[in-house]
Structures are given as structure tokens and as C-alpha cells.
Amino acid sequence: MSGFLFEQVVFGPIRSRRLGISLGLNLLPENEKHCTFNCLYCECGWTMPKSKRRMEFPSRDIIKTELEKRLKAISEKGSFIDAITFAGNGEPTIHPDFCNVMNDTVELRNNYFPTAKIVVLSNGTMTNNIEIRKAMTMADINMLKLDTGTEKTFLKLNNPLIKISLEEIIENYKKFNGNFTVQTLFTKANYKGEIIDNTHPDELISWLKILKILKPKLVTIYTIAREAPISEIEKISPGVLQQIAKKVEEAGLKAEIYS
Ligand code: SF4
How many CB atoms lie within 10 A of CB 115? Predict the structure, then answer.
């Protein structure tokens, strides 16, 4: 399956499960998924093999022009937005001009909707880069992916396409000094004859141990909402998500469920 892909640089505004009325920014090529991961549950479908990618990222100027056009139109209609969210067809921080795009976005947000939050949904794989980290800290909310506390499940569930370990990602997350939100997707999958289950009690113990070290402002917990690239993958029930959220709260952290 090709997954759910965006055709534009700016999309929405949409009512988001997590962020209210959110205007989306897709920094990736239109109709093509680009990511450093290839998560089994990705609603954009499988990541395009390197050899087939067009790599035609929208330029900084195009992004700025499109964003301003949309913000102006929303403002002239007397409507509002709660957030501008970097999301779209993959991992936004891999855009070659991500730092300048962030500068432009902050400037435009301040001009049109100063109370709107700038949000980055990221898998965290670029947080080893100090410039990208600096740009990310200009956002109001960085929602960083942490689906597991074990290398084994990380490799199977997130399926990284670059050389990176969970340990490296966690070390980079520490540099945010707790000023971020963790996003964790829970699921159970049967893929290539193996069961991958990040709701397993042993998995939860490792994940909670890392959360206690990272001390994020918030842990957001959710499950699959759209079709995934593989068929043998399960949505986790609200009851199980609630039990997991309770464990996060018992560890002294704030949790929110989006089911
Ligand atoms: S990190 Fe996000 S965009 Fe990338 S493969 Fe995973 S779910 Fe898809």
C-alpha cells in the first residue's frame, strides 16, 4: 500500500487528536515518503527505497510563501489555529534547510497567530546535530518518538534505515533537559514470523526506566489510527492504554492518551 501521503507543503487546518486546530507543514516531497525510519505501523506506508526517491524537497522560499499565504487567508476569514505542526510525509528534520524553515515559521507565527504553538513531530534521529537541536528548541513543543526501551524492539518496530541505536537517540534526548514531549505508539504486530509487542510487561519496564531518566514534560500514548504497511498489526484497546498511562503517572510523569 502507498499509505496516506500529503500532496501539499501546507495542509489543513485539521482538528488533531493531540494539538487542537493545527495547520500542517510538510517539508518532504509531495506524494513521497522520506524518513530515517521505516516503522511497521507508519500511516504514510513504507519508506521509499533510496534509489527510487526523487529527493525534491520544497525550497525554503516555497515553504515560506505557501505558509504565509495560508496564514493570511485564515486570519482574513476571522478564523484561528492552535498550532503549526511540522509533520507530513516523513521526518521533517531531514529537510536540508530545516533550521531556516524554522526561523521563517517562528517569524510568520509571530506576525499572524502569536499564541499558536509551533510543534515538531520527530523520530529524533537528527537530534545528534547541534544546529538541528537548536532549531528544534525554537519550537514550543517537540514531540519525540520513543516506542520502546529495548534495542531489539527498536530495530524491529521502528526499523531504522540509517546506522543509529536507541542508546544514541536516548543520549541525544537527554540534551533537551526534559523540555520535550515523548510520543509512544503502542501496538502488537506479527511480521516475518516474529511477534513484536511493545505492551509486553518486560517492554514496559525498560521503557519506563528510560522515561524516568529523561523526565519529559509529557508522555503521549496512542495506537494506530489508520491503515499500516503490514496487515498483521493490532490496535491497542483504550483499557490497556489507560493501564500504561497509570504506570507513567506512578513513575511521577504526566501522561495523556489519544485513542
Ligand atoms: S518515524 Fe514517523 S514517518 Fe518515519 S516511518 Fe516512523 S511513523 Fe513513519
Answer: 8
Distances (CA, A) of 137 to 57, 140, 256: 23, 7, 22
Alpha carbon of 50 to ligand 1 centroid (Å): 16
Burial (CB count within 10 angstroms: exposed 0-12, middle 13-18, buried 19+), residue 234:
middle
Find the residues whose C-beta lies inside 6 A of ligand 1.
Answer: 35, 37-39, 42, 44, 47, 90-91, 123, 145
Using most ligand atoms within 8 A of CB, pick from 26, 40, 86, 91 the residue to mutate for ligand 1: 91
Split at pLDDT 50, 70, 90, the class of 2 is low
What is the position in ligand 1's atom list of the atom closest to the CA of 33?
A: 3
Cα-to-centroid distance, 42 and ligand 1 (Å):
5
**Tens-place pLDDT, residues 72-104:** 999 999 999 999 999 989 999 999 999 999 999
How far is the centre of ligand 1, averaged over its atoms, from the C-alpha of 67 (Å)? 23
Which sign, positive or negative, has the C-alpha torsion 134, 135, 137, 138? positive
Provide the whole-model pTM: 0.95
**Which amino acid, one-letter code, is at 11?**
F
Reply yes or no on domain 10-258 having CATH 3.20.20.70: yes
Alpha helices in 59-116 (DSSP H): 60-76, 98-112
* CA of residue 109 to ligand 1 center, whole Å: 26
Ligand 1 atom closest to the CA of 41, numbered from 1: 7
